[in-house]
Amino acid sequence: MAGGITDTGELYSPYVGLVYMFNLIVGTGALTMPKAFATAGWLVSLVLLMFLGFMSYMTTTFVVEAMAAANAQLRWKRMEKRKEDDEDEDSSSGVSDSDVLLRDSYERAETRPILSVQRRGSPNIFEITERVEMGQMASMFFNKVGVNLFYFCIIIYLYGDLAIYAAAVPVSLMQVTCSAIGNHSCNVGDGTKYNDTDKCWGPIRRIDAYRLYLAAFTLLLGPFTFFNVQKTKYLQIMTSLMRWIAFILMIILALIRISRGQAEGHPSMAQLSGIRNLFGVCVYSFMCQHSLPSLITPISKKRHVNKLVLLDYILILAFYSLLSFTAIYCFRNDTLMDMYTLNFTNCEIINVAFIRYFLGLFPVFTISTNFPIIAVTLRNNWKTLFHREGGTYPWLVDRIVFPAITLVPPVLVAFCTHDLESLVGITGAYAGNGIQYLIPAFLAYCSRKDTQLVFGSGTVNKHLSPFRHTFWIVFVLIWGFSCFVFVTANIVLSESKL
Question: What is 14-79+128-182+210-496's CATH topology?
Fold first, then answer.
């Protein structure tokens, strides 16, 4: 998920923030989790899910801490500028002797930090009142190389997001329509394996139908990349409502089949070959760090924000476990589909046609509303990456080139493959790994150093992460880099066996 949740000025209570965060995290990744669970085994999946949930919570607290440090620096920067303006207006009477002595007591280096005045008595200096996005925090706390690496990571992640969305909608449409009006009526979830070359409607192959839907999806939603769009509150309410109806329906239908003795699943405890995709899916499914500024800033009372986030992660962990365990015991491993909703389009699972079509087409509605927003976010990140102070882009570059390099690559990836589990796994394992682990850890480390330099070593950030010891930052960094190595080695070994 990407993009803002609300405008900075719209405040809401901590409990509304809890609901927003739940909706932000639980998205498309959850639909690919049951297949990943079945592939890796229930015990390995549960342990890894709990561990990655803990790691994601830790790095979420790192981002909140960095947001507070960034707010403090911006606040003091404005205060210093105001003081300097006052001094310029009346240099003879505007500064007291005590202020002069205080200012002279600090050494001024040639490269002076943004803020150099220390006042430990300000209780609200670290209050999070201004939305500071991750890109702005990277610019404040990282050097030029770090900023470029940040934008590279977020751009790759958004490309992966768009490729997943561009493939998920045509896959859902292909599966539903090929079964409804094609040669395999009502057989989507019955365990029959179809090849891309199998017939869909008459002489039209399934892969042809998929690519026709992909072309239609691109033509309908692609043009929004060339304009500015945003997710309205009413659109968010509608998509959230549809999402929860779909998830609750799938859990209830699976539980009914299990209670009637119709369960077909016999999941294994552990299959190490499935860990790679499971890791990527779990990372993708816990992703929220890049949207935290727009989510946390409007919360009216942030005193217990870390406890609020912890409660959210516990609820999300329980929900993912319930969804995945009901799935792997209800359906055989070989019948679970990449997009879990498609398992409920079989007449034997549910004989109400409306529910079958609602679940089968659910990803089409929700993803179609998100695709333009993420595309515009990616386009704006490209513009920010190449922007130079005081410069402007020519009309052709601004309106044609940037939207084109945003739209074309993910559509090409979706044209070449519709393996959603692999797309989610690779996106989560690489770009998601960087955004969820490495960037928050570096933000926490650099913001702590800057805070000590600017305000003194005795100043304590009121939103300091519970994982304040440097050990945790080092642990996250080692874990993140180890995951890069593990996933890459696993891919290389898997390819060499083929």
Answer: Amino acid/polyamine transporter I (1.20.1740)
